[in-house]
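Ops channel
N.P.: pipeline sanity check, posting one input/output pair.
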């Protein structure tokens, strides 16, 4: 997951910097250029990074499922149900 997240974030930031720089070279004030670049970058990233965003979404869904399974396992162990893995650690 972390590789896809880093790549996606880096690409979006790079695109933001490029769009803002182009606007500033064109004479747009810096704050306005950054705000416009944020909107443009959001729209472009939806189109240009569709596959990468899909992989990132799948990674996040997998992490969410692992956390949910671990939380459910811990809750079951704390209630004293299940196979007793957590009870052995208390003794």
């Amino acid at each position: 997951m972390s590789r896809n997240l880093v790549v996606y974030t880096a690409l979006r930031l790079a695109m933001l910097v490029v769009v803002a720089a182009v606007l500033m070279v064109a004479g747009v004030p810096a704050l306005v250029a950054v705000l416009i670049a944020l909107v443009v970058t959001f729209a472009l990233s939806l189109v240009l990074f569709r596959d990468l965003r899909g992989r990132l979404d799948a990674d996040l869904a997998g992490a969410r499922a692992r956390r949910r399974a671990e939380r459910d396992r811990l809750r079951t162990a704390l209630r004293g149900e299940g196979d007793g893995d957590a009870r052995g650690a208390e003794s």
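N.P.: looks fine end to end. The first helix runs from residue 2 to 25.
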